[in-house]
Design brief:
Elements (H helix, E strand, L loop, with lengths): L7 H9 L4 E12 L2 E7 L2 E3 L3 E5 L6 H8 L7 E6 L2 E2 L4 H5 L2 E4 L11 H11 L4 H15 L14 H12 L6 E5 L7 H18 L2 E6 L2 H7 L2 E6 L2 E6 L1 H6 L8 H9 L9 H13 L2
Parallel strand pairs: 4-9, 4-10, 7-8, 8-9
Antiparallel strand pairs: 1-2, 1-3, 1-5, 5-6, 10-11
């Protein structure tokens, strides 16, 4: 991996105000008909932290992320990113974040380079800077040798790296990752973890991720919010949440069971299982 050309203005901002709030929600709510997918979600995310939204499939994690990334309208409540309202200032908000969804976001019929070129154009990166920026993200992700191969021939881990590369082309202030390691083998999962940690450590990028892998959250996240049935159960640092149980060697699994009275794997229906398996298949 090589270093990306940093956003010096952002770096200075992070250095001078490390505890500044970059994302805030107040009473964020989403209905689908009469069903409540997310109810009264109120959280704050600090600049430069890795924040995890945890819970089983169907807890409302992906729905919350889609609202924050302007893909779903809010039924009620308010959300801001870097002070911009996601409903009333959506165009400005979209320039501030990168987003890697669960669904495939790379075109398998194109090469890695061609996929990145499309995103460079979508993000309005000036023509004179595009080639340099593409080289930088390819180097950072370790995809230089595969740049001109068709993405359909990539491994699952390589596809996920390319999708992250696409999402950071414009040097976003916050990166949204929806279940970033689902369907990946242990080696590829570890590589994604390392990339997330390096983005935060080297560039101060704020990471907002959803996952139902509690080991992943414990390793990556500075703070987590546990959701169940669309509502917040508890928020805190993983170490504090484990310590709150008052028993040695407590895990986040123990925390989840204690505060929700449920196993993380429960409540997974046929649709959720099918979606996870489709994701696993397309990532190899």
């Amino acid at each position: 991996m090589t270093r990306l050309t940093g956003n010096t203005d952002l770096s200075k901002s992070l250095a001078s105000s490390p505890n500044a709030v970059i994302l805030e929600t107040q009473g964020l709510t989403r209905y689908f008909g009469k069903a409540v997918a997310v109810k009264d979600l109120s959280i704050t995310v600090q600049q430069g932290e890795v924040f995890g939204l945890l819970g089983p499939n169907g807890a409302g994690k992906s729905t919350a992320m889609k609202m924050l990334t302007t893909l779903l309208p809010l039924s009620a409540g308010r959300a801001t990113i870097a002070g911009y309202d996601v409903t009333h200032q959506a165009a400005a908000v979209r320039r501030l974040f990168g987003y890697v969804p669960q669904a495939l976001s790379a075109d398998g019929s194109l090469t890695g380079y061609e996929n990145l070129l499309i995103f460079a154009k979508l993000y309005d990166i000036p023509v004179k800077h595009r080639q340099r920026r593409i080289r930088e993200v390819l180097d950072f992700m370790g995809l230089q040798a595969a740049a001109h191969r068709l993405v359909r021939n990539y491994s699952g881990g390589m596809i996920r790296k390319l999708e992250i590369a696409q999402s950071i082309m414009h040097q976003p202030k916050i990166l949204f990752l929806d279940e970033p390691t689902v369907g990946l083998d242990p080696i590829a999962r570890t590589q994604v973890w390392q990339l997330v940690q390096q983005l935060r450590a080297d560039y101060g990028t704020t990471i907002f991720l959803t996952t139902h892998f509690l080991e992943e959250a414990d390793s990556l996240c500075s703070r987590v919010t546990i959701m169940q049935q669309g509502q917040v159960v508890i928020t805190g640092e993983p170490s504090d949440l484990k310590a709150s149980l008052g028993k040695p060697n407590a895990t986040l699994d123990d925390v989840f069971i204690h505060y929700t009275g449920d196993q993380l794997t429960s409540g997974v229906n046929y649709r959720d299982t099918a979606r996870t398996r489709r994701t696993s298949q397309r990532l190899g």
